[in-house]
Amino acid sequence: MQTENIYRNTDRLFAVLMPFQWICGIIATACASPWAWSGQSSYTHPHVWLAMLGGGLCCLLPCYLAIFRPGRLSTRMVIGCSQMVFVSILIHVTGGRIETHFYVFGSLAFLAAYRDIRVLVPATLIVAADHFVRGIFWPESIFGIATASPWRWVEHTGWVLFEDVFLILSIRQSLAEVRELARQTTDTEIAMERLAIAKRFAEHNEARFRATFDHAAVGVAHIGFDGYCLRANKHICEMLEYTEQELQHLRFQDVTYPEDRQLDATRLQGFLDGTFEETAFEKRYVSRSGEAIWVRLTVSIVRDEEFFICVVEDIREERRAREALEKSHLENHKLSLVAAKARQSVIIADAFCRIEWVNSAFTQLTGFTQEEVEGRKPWDLLQGPETDPQTIALVGEKIRAKESVSVEIVNYSKTGEKYWIALEIEPVFDDQQRLTQFIATQNNVTERKRYEEDLRSAKDAAEAASAAKSEFLANMSHEIRTPLNGLLGFTDLLIRGAANDPAKRDEYLQIIRTSGRSLLDVINDLLDLSKIEAGKLETELLPCDPAAILSEVASILKVKADEKGLKLEHEWISDTPNQIVTDAVRLRQLLTNLIGNAIKFTEFGGVSVSASWSAKRQQLMFEVRDSGIGIPEDQLEAIFEPFSQADTTTTRRFGGTGLGLAICRRIADLLGGDVTVQSQVGAGTTFLVNIAAPAPDESSQAVAEKVTEAVGDPASARSGEQFQGVRALVAEDGPVNRLLVEKMLTPCGFQLTFVENGQLALEAYNPERFDLILMDMQMPVLDGYAATERLRATGCVAPIIAMTAHAMASDRQDCLSAGCSDYVSKPVTLEQLLTTIERNLPSSHAPTSTGDSSAETAAAPQDAPLASEILPGMEMLAPAIDLFVNGLPELLADMLAAAEDADWEKVELLAHRLRGSCGGCGFPVMYDVATALEESARTQKDAPSEKTNNEILATHEQLMKMLPRIEDSTGRRPYAANPGL
Q1: What is the pTM of this model?
Q2: Whole-angstrom Cα distance, residue 700 to residue 706?
Q3: CA distance 125 to 29
């Protein structure tokens, strides 16, 4: 603060000094050389103008800053620089007279008044620069001579620096003195302030002590060692009915109850012996009116001042309450004797709900002894996480209102065991209707609650089961009646002869077949779910081609998508091995359900499937996206529950049993993965599938080859007399089923004998007459299981193939355990039945072959037609095969164009697409060529070479040569390849 005052005062000094210098400079210049002569003419000397204008400019800014911005560093610096410029002007107008040079030292001394060394620095630099510049170019204006030594400015600067040294030392000493003076002043002011505070604090403490002493809520007195009262407050005077002056003339023994004086003497002796410095006890005083007053007396000694400090608390009301409480305790004790033998848990608590007593039943129920709970509140011990907060609040509200409580609540024992009690709480009041206690009884109703909960759970489960059954039956009724309507309706039409036209008849039969398959799908879903729920669904992990499986599923479902005008696209977004180890049947079922579900719930747009394989995690991943109706967020998990769909509206609109997604998730789990879903209502749904899919090792490859050899090709065509002469005994009780078997097997050359039950089969069987037995497992008189066991017991070695409508895995095992050679589930397809028979017939009865297939392939002419191997066994794929065959020329043309443009990534993509389509449509020869082309394109993309390029072109030419040989499902050849391609 002192430094700021110095800065401001010095600024104001220069604000006066600089205008004064300016005026004096003008006067001196006007007197010394007002005129300059040039021959006969004269004019005002330039020095006059320099003094007037230069001096004015030097004064203007410093004066402004000194007036409006005093005390700032920038103001000091400007004033210092302006002062030295003013000195330079003075030296110039005097012609460099040596006397005016001393004004430099005077100006520096003026600037030292700031006591700021920083101000001297720019001032000194200005003087040195002025002497240097003018000493070289205008020495007469600075030194008063026409020529001067170029080093003379150094001499002048040295003298200025010499003065700066003394000024700096003076400033530093002055600043130190100012600081010391400020420190001393501050210390003095602080000491004075502290002294004043201490005085005020002492006065305040004295006043506060006196006020506290006089107005304390208890009696306070100072008693001298001689027993006389030195000082007494208002409360003790009112209690004893004496004034302070009267008490000062009495000893404390004079107002003590006679029977308690010996107690006072004993305590006094303890103080005198130094046994204690403070004591507290209860005694009686006698008031002026003679009333005995019970007090609690606390006495401490002040030995230096030789007096006692006595604090006297009137406890008459407390004594009366204590006596009443003791009486109440006595009554409670009597009551406890009654409650101790009660079978119910009994708690006695005081008016503040603190436990005073519990009976043995409480200890047996809770595990807490009376010593552990005494003085504590019941809810601190017995309540836990499942205790109902609303019940707790109700109990608390009733207790605060001093009302009775009757609730059932969850409590916890000492060991943490939960139990239910029926709690009854009754408040107890004294004669003045003051609350004294609470009595609580607890009756353990845990068993009753458990029984009620079991009844409630059973009721809820029954209602839920009833609702689920009703919903399931409604769905099943719809799903079963819909295909049954087609089956029965068109069958009735055929019976009535409504389809005389062969084309119309074929159409009706196709509808009947489709309806039957739809009905079979519903039944298969139910059976699959039952197998999964029972843990009986088996998987067979063998090497398979994932690309072929995806292409096959996409080809099958593309017809359904085309019917709805939807796009169905699939692609592989990563390199995938040709073989992985998984259950191909279950994987195909999983993809069929998911993609078919997406098509069903999509009206516009399309469905796309992205597939990839992770070599690091050995996982196969599928992403099925659709642009359908979407699923509400709160239903995303419910859709994976059996018989569930997003809502009832969806069920009515789109149909379905609600089993597909449940089966998908369980199949994915069996295959070592999971199915998750992401969806937005109105924007579509994405199902994410991942399953374990390790690459096969040599052992798994060998197993796959053996299985393939054993099973054969289920899609290979069989016709005519392949099973000529095979004698079969058919045990079937249903006439329709007997007729169906007859119509299926007779054209294939079988000689059939039919019986209606197992007993007749036993009687009819003769090893010389029959090569094969087809056994229905559920028949009257004697079922198929017993009949098979008896046949085996008689030494029957002929193949016995079980034909049953029971399709569970346990049913298959039961059939095999009974002695059956193999098993087919109804409804039986011709292909399935023939494959099973072929697999079990002895080699001597196996169907004849026309020769080795490889030899036939080698011997086949190069222009022989290439037909799909999955036809006619899978006739439903015919439209997809037609679409594939007709799109081949365009695909090959795009592939060649990409190769010519060196777009190897596109070539690889097209070859991959071609490979998948060939596998799905049953063209293995073209599949192998497309695989080689894809691998070549991948190699060319990573490491281009002329050799690989030629291989790609040669492979493409090979595909082009195959094009004219490929036949569609109707046997027609497409147009020949364009030679110009």
Answers
A1: 0.34
A2: 10
A3: 26
